[in-house]
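Z., the sequence and structure:
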Amino acid sequence: MEKQTALESNAEYEAFVNKFKPKLTTDDCYTPPEVYEVVKNWRHPNLVARYKRLWID
């Protein structure tokens, strides 16, 4: 078995460690925080109202 140089083993180690780092989603990358907050705040009351209408009617 060949001996690895420090650079080779470091690159291999980095590749191994990077597999376990959390990946960013499109929401993490593209949705501005202001837009995310507006949608989040709109979603909850509107979904509650919609489901109440479905179950009550």
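The mean pLDDT is 75. The longest helix spans residues 33-56.

Let me know what you think.
H.
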